[in-house]
Write a structure and sequence with these properties.
The protein is an alpha/beta fold. It is built from 16 helices and 10 strands. The longest helix has 23 residues, at 191-213. Bound molecules: NADPH dihydro-nicotinamide-adenine-dinucleotide phosphate and 1,3-dihydroxyacetonephosphate. Substrate binds at residues 116, 265-266.
């Protein structure tokens, strides 16, 4: 019988993406002695990692053990040698990032989406895209959810991850690869619900940031977030109606951390919009991706069919895409909250 550590040594994992979340996941997995084939698009970053054991532009304080981490710009090889493939590129760029792969390149592998966004224009979840484009069955798909900022992983602060799935046994195997001194991981049988919730909570965090930028206070934000939870519940009920406990950390927990944390990109982006930045200038200033900016368009479009009452999502959409002044739109929104 192979014990837990020995079995982990044998695990071969491809991590696709060179940003903050990929950097955090590579830290966790490689410290647990999985073999991580880490794809990033920038050759200079690969060279820097190989020479100095740090990712130069994201979580640059983390040191990687190159016995377990193999950085590369060669996507095909990274995927070919791996049994598990983790996607950690922002949703808007995932099609481009995977474009070098053959249609059958993901056959037999377990795909794990760590992405909290949707495919723009097609307005579909990442797991649906992987099914449609690469034929990955639901049983071979997992999603990483839960309130967890990369920056806190880098600092080894106690964190919790939930692995959403259709197949609890596979999710549990992946949880074993993640668990360590500062990470607890739990499987959950709700792939789509967890994935949609992670998308929508980013939109809500944008709203919280906008509110803060407009000088609304804690009283308003508490109402905004509790109304948001109801908005999420209505959406999930219409889109994926199964019984789920939305008080769980994969749902409410992730909403709270993103709405309140200093590390949230979405909240920071929203705050800049509330302060009067244009979308372009906020994107340039932040230099990281706020998924909610893209997601709000997808959810807004999708909701034209579902017709769920989503006042917060609608307000964020109108501000970001129809250029309605944040102060004007929030005057309207505040009358709709209870
Ligand atoms: N950061 C976090 O704490 C968490 C993030 N997530 C999710 O993880 C996903 C990744 O976000 P995160 O790591 O934070 O993003 P970052 O903003 O930290 O990094 C973005 C990454 O995407 C890369 N990129 C940009 N354009 C392209 C492209 N066209 N093709 C390939 N790669 C590209 C960037 O490369 P380059 O630097 O070369 O431009 C960079 O590596 C998102 O869906 C996010 O919601 C989930 C949980 C926590
Ligand atoms: O999903 C996250 C934390 O759980 C990250 O949120 P941000 O992208 O807003 O930083």
């Amino acid at each position: 019988m192979v014990n837990k550590i020995e079995r982990s040594v044998l695990e071969k994992i491809a991590v696709i993406g060179g940003g903050s979340w990929a950097s955090a996941l590579v830290k966790i997995l490689s410290e647990n002695k999985s073999q991580v084939h880490w794809w990033m698009r920038n050759e200079n970053d690969v060279q820097h990692l190989t020479n100095y054991r740090h990712n130069p532009r994201y979580l640059s304080g983390v040191t990687y053990d190159l016995n377990y981490v193999k950085p590369s710009t060669d996507l095909r090889t990274a995927v070919e040698v791996a049994d598990w493939v983790i996607l950690a590129v922002p949703a808007a760029f995932i099609q481009e990032a995977l474009s070098g792969l053959e249609k059958d390149a993901l056959n037999g592998k377990v795909l794990i989406s760590a992405i909290k966004g949707m495919i723009p224009k097609q307005n579909i979840l990442i797991t649906d895209y992987l099914g449609q484009q690469y034929g990955v069955p639901n049983s071979h798909q997992l999603v990483v959810a839960g309130p967890c900022h990369a920056e806190e992983v880098a600092m080894e602060k106690q964190s919790y991850l939930t692995i959403g799935s259709y197949d609890l046994a596979t999710a549990e195997r992946f949880c074993e690869l993640l668990r360590n001194r500062y990470v607890k991981a739990n499987p959950l049988e709700d792939l789509d619900g967890v994935e949609y919730c992670a998308v929508i909570k980013n939109i809500i965090a944008l709203a919280c940031g906008i509110a803060r930028g407009l000088n609304y206070g804690d009283n308003f934000q508490a109402v905004l977030v509790s109304n948001a939870m109801q908005e999420i519940e209505r959406f999930l009920h219409a889109a994926m109606p199964i019984h789920r406990d939305l008080n769980g950390s994969a749902y409410l927990g992730d909403l709270l951390v993103t709405a309140y944390s200093q590390f949230s990109r979405n909240r920071t982006f929203g705050n800049m919009i509330g302060h009067g930045y244009t979308v372009k200038s906020a994107q340039i200033e932040m230099n990281m991706v706020a998924e909610g900016y893209y997601a709000v368009q997808s959810i807004y479009e999708l909701n034209k069919k579902l017709k769920v009452n989503m006042p917060i999502t609608t307000a964020v959409y109108l501000i970001l895409y129809e250029r309605i002044a944040p102060a004007v739109e929030f005057e309207i929104l505040k009358e709709k909250l209870t």
